[in-house]
Design goal:
This protein is mainly α. The protein has helices at residues 2-18, 25-37, 45-120, 123-200, 207-214, 243-252, 277-298.
Length: 299
């Protein structure tokens, strides 16, 4: 499309040269031959100009449609990214619960080892087992703290998700409005230019016809939906499967779309401004967590 736009600019320059009364016949023939090779029908310089501007208008519409599609793909990617960021707190709760289950399992094993050592009346084994029990107790306590923190984070999600999705809706809505406004300005300018050029070429063109050639691009882009989360995830256990095994199996199936997502194909010039909602949400969430820790330390 960039090449086509450059070609129409070159063609307009050639058509303008044909208007020069000082230009020699041999040069005129060369210019017309070049315009022929570019696909334009022979005629007066004004008729050449009209053809070129009609082709240029069609190229501009194609570029606008590509930008519209690029914006739609980019904004959909932004919505998926934000949704996945919000879901990560849910995944973190599963991780914390899995860690807690593993710690509880280690505690049971440590208690069993201590009982065996006491039964065998082995002083060295008893001391070793006691150390194992102490470490296991610490792991259980730490895992309980992690689960409590993860539950608190998940419970905070409805408010955070509502704020984040609202901010993203405003950001993307503004991008769409700016795109629409820019397109309307282009359409008005191109349509009037075609009408004026048609008059000069003795090929009158109505404003309606010129507007059709200028093209109307009306992107309709979806807004992000509010994110809803289940504060307490449930594990669906299979027959004979314990809680820890069920967690590990279900966790493997919880792959987020962003792990395989790819950025939409487009040029840098075609891309709308990057939506920073997800990034700001992560920063805001980290700040809230740091404030909570300070409050707990001061209380």
């Amino acid at each position: 499309m960039e090449n086509e736009s450059a070609d129409t600019s070159d063609a307009l320059g050639l058509a303008e040269k044909l208007k020069d009364p000082k230009i020699k016949g041999r040069v005129k023939r060369a210019i017309k031959q070049q315009l022929d090779d570019m696909g334009y029908q022979r005629g007066s310089p004004e008729k050449y100009e009209l053809q070129i501007k009609e082709k240029k208008a069609a190229a501009e519409v194609a570029i606008a449609l590509e930008k519209q599609a690029s914006m739609a793909r980019e904004q959909e990617f932004q919505r998926k990214t934000l949704e996945n960021d919000l879901k990560r707190q849910q995944i973190a709760l599963y991780d914390a619960q899995g860690y807690q289950l593993a710690a509880q399992k280690s505690k049971l094993e440590a208690d069993a080892a201590l009982k065996i050592a006491i039964a065998k009346k082995d002083p060295v084994a008893i001391e070793t087992a006691k150390t194992g029990v102490e470490l296991a107790d610490k792991e259980v306590n730490l895992s309980s703290m992690r689960v409590a923190s993860a539950i608190a984070n998940v419970n905070d999600q409805p408010e955070i998700a509502s704020d984040a999705t609202l901010e993203q809706k405003v950001t993307q809505g503004t991008e769409n409005q700016n795109f629409q406004a820019g397109e309307k300005r282009r359409e008005r300018k191109t349509a009037l230019d075609l009408v004026e050029t048609g008059e000069k070429a003795h090929r009158p063109m109505s404003l309606t016809t010129a507007e059709d050639k200028a093209g109307r691009v009306n992107p309709v882009l979806a807004f992000p939906k509010s994110f809803e989360s289940n504060p307490m995830p449930n594990l669906d256990l299979k027959p004979g499967e314990n809680l820890f095994e069920g967690y590990q199996r279900q966790r493997e199936g919880m792959k987020l779309p962003s792990q395989s997502a790819k950025f939409p194909t487009s040029t840098i010039a075609d891309m709308p401004p990057m939506d920073k909602t997800a990034q700001r949400w992560r920063s805001h969430f980290a700040t809230r967590q740091h404030t909570k820790k300070l409050d707990c330390a001061n209380s």
